[in-house]
Specification:
Length: 603
């Protein structure tokens, strides 16, 4: 136990390392039982979480064996948090050398799926005896009804459809469907999947919710065991994780939700809209906003751009703009010239700063991006192809294969070990499958697999075996090898903005900032009331954004996430012609996103 002297020391230390940032300190020292923190990128969220944990521990609010539970939706974000906390927390609380702080004794950090699997491993037997072996189960992709039917575990077509429809309902947040099919879904899982040691990805969360629903003593135990719950990236929470979270929260639970509504770009896979304000009302939470941006503190232009994009999100019709952000925008005659400009910019940046990495971030795969790829190849620029699509079968099947090979290891005599040679062996088995027939996607995925396994051995060596296994399993089950793109050794990475969420590079180039590309037809252009002729005279500007508020905010969020991936500088480009899906050359205009109030460019 820490003495009150050391508590005072920690308070002083926290004030010092936070440079007296009032809002951060308010979050750390707040006594609010339910607190919601809006924290834009770079405003010290991670730093604040670590100090908050340190302060709670130092205040002796956690009698043994109670723990702080820290959760996030993304696997990689959870383990990044775990690494930061493991490295920084002992520095904050150097209790003494006799009883060094063991982070795992005080904090349980995980993604929702990892956490749910952990609980089912311990208490899932109350639902089904076989759940004791959940760590060895094969995971099943919920989305593909055909594949589910072909598993050969006695599912009817109807049942197979129910599993994939349920997955669709989770993505579409169809609460009525989820409620009315909840019990029959669980029945199918219990009768067909679990006896065959298989589990669909959604079922991991659903069974944990069911466990808490059916066995209130287990729920009460966990509510007492975790008196403090911190949730990071709260805006990405989906309907299942939200329900799991709610079961863990009692009146007494000290809750801190941290998130940024403008970084919610996964609406299309089920991130709940307006969750920050809904949660605020639901739990009557106190709200604090972190607003000092430390990431761009030495780059005035980036700081203004960040601020002005956020102002546009806060008040669509009358954003509060104090000063315009001047952006670097290149406008070329056609796509070929634009591709040349992109490669020249890359060569210039590498010459100036050979150590720094550059990401080319696009809204989506397209013929126009193909022209940039051709130019990168012509100029012999070694780049990483990261244009993955979540629904691409090649992308999904690669993860299934990795999971299968990893599960084979778990079932072997060495199953309780993770070492460099074991991971090398698994890598070789995966690689063997693609010998002689590697597409750009598989070649990239193999590089990512290597980078990921190296990370587990080097950067994440501090994790215990259970955590390492969970990290690996969740990465494969959730198809998220792409989250390791920033660790690729190549200087240049080509990715979608969605794939780049949570990652950072020194420089970011966003090409194809054009009408019908970003935003595209489904994004905003299809709802725009201006005719081509009007646009020709006045440029592409946003028309009555209030009437298309949801669509506008969605596009703005993707734009914001793209911009904030840059640590040092962002460059935009646009061309006056684009190639459409029928390979026809069409006239186009600079994206309306670059004409928002507060953004200014010289051509
Ligand atoms: N109060 C502070 N004083 C000085 N530096 C700070 C302060 N708060 C944060 N920083 C620094 O700013 C940078 C960003 O902080 P941090 O990583 O905690 O932000 P974040 O909000 O988690 O960012 P992101 O959401 O992009 O991960 C870090 O280098 C951090 O050390």
């Amino acid at each position: 136990m820490l003495s009150s002297v050391s508590k005072q020391n920690i308070i002083e230390r926290i004030k010092d390392v936070h440079n007296n940032d009032e809002n951060q300190l308010e979050v750390i020292f707040s006594n609010a039982n339910k607190l919601i923190v809006e924290a834009p990128a770079g405003c010290g969220k991670t730093k604040t979480i670590i100090s908050k944990i340190a302060y709670i521990i130092a205040s002796n609010e956690l009698p043994n064996p109670k723990k702080i539970l820290a959760l996030t939706f993304s696997v990689n974000a959870a383990y990044k948090m775990k690494k930061d906390v493991s490295e920084e927390l002992p520095k904050m609380i150097d209790v003494d050398n006799v009883h060094p702080l063991k982070v795992n004794d005080k904090v349980y950090i995980s993604n929702y799926h990892g956490f749910a699997r952990h609980i089912l491993n311990l208490y899932g037997y109350l639902i089904h005896e076989n759940l004791r072996n959940i760590n060895f189960f094969d995971s099943v992709d919920d989305s593909d009804m055909e594949k589910i039917y072909q598993l050969g575990i006695g599912l009817s077509l109807e049942q197979s459809r129910e599993i994939s429809d349920f997955n669709q309902a989770v993505k579409e947040i169809n609460i009525d469907y989820i409620k009315s099919n909840f019990n029959s879904y669980i029945e199918i899982i219990n009768e067909t999947f679990i006896p065959n040691n298989m589990i669909p990805y959604n079922a991991i969360l659903i069974l944990a919710i069911e466990l808490f629903k059916k066995f209130s003593n287990v729920k009460k135990f966990y509510q007492g065991y975790f008196p403090v719950i911190i949730v990071d990236e709260f805006q990405d929470t989906n309907i299942l994780s939200w329900n799991l979270l709610k079961s863990l929260i009692s009146e007494k639970t000290n809750v801190i939700f941290m998130g940024d509504s403008l970084q919610r770009i996964y609406g299309f896979i089920g991130a709940i809209p307006n969750l920050i304000s809904s949660a605020e009302n639901y739990y009557k939470m106190e709200k604090i906003e972190l607003n000092k941006n430390y990431r761009f503190k030495d780059n005035a232009e980036m700081l203004i751009l960040d601020k002005n994009i956020r102002s546009n999100a806060e008040d669509i019709m009358h954003p509060n703009i104090e000063e315009n952000a001047r952006i670097n925008l290149s406008v070329t005659k056609n796509q070929q010239d634009e591709a040349k400009w992109v490669t020249e910019k890359i060569i210039e940046l590498i010459k100036k700063d050979p150590e720094h990495k550059i990401a080319i971030l696009v809204k989506q795969r397209s013929i126009n991006v193909g022209i940039i790829i051709a130019e990168l190849e012509k100029q012999n620029i070694d780049y990483f192809f990261g244009l993955f699509r979540d629904d691409d079968s090649e992308y999904i099947n690669f993860h299934r294969l990795c999971l299968q090979k990893f599960n084979e290891h778990l079932k072997s005599d060495e199953g309780n070990r993770i070492s460099k040679s074991i991971l090398n062996r698994i890598y070789n088995k995966v690689e063997e499958k693609f010998e002689g027939e590697q597409s750009a996607t598989t070649e990239s995925l193999l590089s990512l697999l290597k980078v990921f396994f190296d990370k587990i051995i080097i950067e994440y060596s501090f994790l215990d075996v259970e955590d390492k296994i969970s990290f690996i399993k969740d990465t494969f089950e959730n198809n998220v090898l792409k989250q390791h793109m920033e660790n690729i050794s190549k200087n240049v990475i080509l990715s979608t903005i969605h794939g780049a969420k949570g990652l950072e590079w020194s420089y970011v180039i966003m090409p194809d900032m054009e009408q019908f590309v970003f935003p595209n037809y489904y994004g905003l252009c299809g709802s725009c009331k201006y005719s081509y002729r009007e646009i020709y005279n006045m440029g592409c500007i946003l028309n009555e954004p209030k009437s298309i508020e949801d669509k506008f905010l969605e596009e703005l969020s993707v734009f914001y996430v793209g911009v904030t991936r840059a640590r040092k500088q962002i460059f935009f480009s646009s061309s006056q012609e684009r190639v459409n899906n029928n390979y026809e050359i069409k006239k186009t205009y600079i994206s309306c996103l670059l004409s928002l109030p507060g953004i200014e460019y010289n051509i």
